Amino acid sequence: MTNIRPVSDLRNNFAEISRLVHETDEPVYLTKNGYGDMVVMSISNFDKLMQGTDIYLKLREAEIEEANGAKWYSWDEVNESVDQIISEAEKNV
């Protein structure tokens, strides 16, 4: 259920809003003069949101690179390359 409260509740009922965002793990939307003004959420919920955004941005970046002709490597190619680098490093020790 969407929680919409006037912004004055943040000042007057902070403890209740804090409890609400932590217990429900849902944001509380605050209004000012009847219009949406801001959102309050728990840090854990915010971190989940940001992690999802970060993953989306990385996937989008990969799609753009692919569209621009970036070379992709299979797991076997990467593994072989890493093995060669380690082997060469061991020879130089």
Provide an overview of this structure.
The structure is a single chain. The chain has 2 domains: 1-41, YefM-like fold; 43-93, no CATH class. 62% of the residues lie in helices and 16% in strands. It has helices at 8-12, 14-24, 43-67, 75-91; strands spanning 3-6, 28-32, 35-40. The chain has a 3-stranded mixed beta sheet with strand order 1-2-3. The chain starts with a strand and ends with a helix.
Helix amount: 55-70%
Q: Tell me about the biggest sheet?
A: 3 strands, mixed
General shape: elongated
Please tally the β strands and state the result.
Answer: 3
Kindly name the structural category.
alpha+beta
- Residue runs with pLDDT of under 50 for 5 or more positions: none
Strand content: 15-25%
Tally the structural domains: 2
- Mean pLDDT equals 92
Strand order of the largest sheet: 1-2-3
Query: How far do the termini sit from each other?
Result: 63 Å
Q: What's the helix count?
A: 4
Order of helices and strands: EHHEEHH
How much is the radius of gyration in Å?
24 Å
Task: Pick out its properties.
single chain; 93 residues; alpha+beta; YefM-like fold; three-stranded mixed beta sheet; 4 helices
Summarize the structure.
The chain is α+β, with helices and mostly antiparallel strands and 93 residues long.
How are the elements arranged and paired?
Elements: E1 3-6, H1 8-12, H2 14-24, E2 28-32, E3 35-40, H3 43-67, H4 75-91
Parallel strand pairs: 1-2
Antiparallel strand pairs: 2-3
